[in-house]
Design goal:
CATH superfamily: Trypsin-like serine proteases
Radius of gyration: 17 Å
Number of domains: 1
CATH topology: Thrombin, subunit H
Distance between the termini: 35 Å
CATH class: Mainly Beta
């Protein structure tokens, strides 16, 4: 679910008493333009869906595993737009470990969903959340960026969200998006919408779309590793103008504080880069990666 201001292109009407959900989405939007990838390229990717609809029809959002019992995603994924109230946890399901949604084979037991305490539904600021899991998840995990980087080459996005061909993709898709002016200069409709905790990426073409919220904007590394710079939170359209992302660097301290409550810590991105540098063909054959 990719938020457009206080509106949604995806309309999720969740009936808390029955757990039922109705979906509607615009047709014919040319978006995303990603390519299928195997799960080994994104082993930290999580799908969040409505339990009784299954992982494909009920897709809500994505997320990333950042520690053995923690998933990072977007806060708005857990709000019902029709009531602007939290979605009950028992309506939701989460899975990981499969590139095809229909082949989801590892379901995640959730202990708690923790939205950022300053998040307010309908805005992009502080639109992040953590999921504390009962299920112990396996590495590699996603590393969160600790500082800006000088590399201005495109970053990557992944997800099962809406494509130019269908409502959602059964295949996990990946695309590269350029790093554009972070304040979305030139997109007049974004004036006043962004804060120091949000930024833009993309320039039309490949993009995130409905169903990709909560997923990462990241720098791929070798061996299934990555460094995450943004959490997908919204945009004005899919594939037309830059998308909007929660700035991971600005939220890293908050995330680390939550993990510390359970004695877990975030990965060191510099160490991840060093580990990934060993993931050459020779390193893989020597089992050093």
């Amino acid at each position: 679910m990719k938020i457009h201001r206080a509106h949604q292109f995806f309309c999720f009407c969740i009936l808390a008493l029955t757990g039922q959900m109705a979906l509607s989405a615009p047709q014919g939007i040319e978006v995303y333009r990603g390519v299928p990838i195997p799960s080994e390229q994104a082993p930290w990717q999580v799908a969040i869906h409505v339990a009784n609809l299954g992982p494909v029809a009920g897709l809500l959002c994505g997320g990333t595993v950042i520690a053995p019992h923690w998933i990072l995603t977007a806060a708005h994924c857990f709000w019902d737009p029709s009531t602007q109230q939290r979605i009950p946890n028992d309506v939701l399901s989460m899975s990981t470990g499969a590139a095809k949604l229909s082949s989801a084979r590892k379901y995640i037991e959730v202990l708690e969903v923790i939205p950022h305490e300053k998040y307010r539904y309908g805005i992009w600021d502080n639109d992040i959340a953590l999921v504390h899991t009962k299920t112990s998840l396996s590495p590699p995990f996603m590393a969160l960026a600790a500082a800006e980087e000088n590399d201005r080459s495109p970053l990557s996005v992944v997800g099962w969200g809406m494509t130019e061909r269908s409502s959602v993709s059964n295949e996990l898709l990946k695309a590269k998006v350029p790093q554009t002016p972070p304040d979305c200069a030139g997109v007049a409709a974004y004036d006043g919408m962004l804060t120091i905790r949000t930024f833009c990426a993309g320039a039309g073409g490949a993009d995130t779309c409905h169903g990709d919220s909560g997923g990462p904007l990241y720098r791929p590394l070798g061996g299934g590793r990555g460094i995450q710079f943004g959490v997908t939170v919204g945009g004005l359209s899919c594939g037309k103008v830059p998308g909007v992302y929660a700035k991971v660097i600005a939220q890293r301290a908050w995330v680390a504080q939550q993990l510390a409550k359970t004695g877990e810590t975030l990965l060191d991105p510099d160490r991840e880069r060093a580990e990934a540098s060993r993931c050459t063909p020779a390193g893989i054959r020597a089992a050093t990666c």
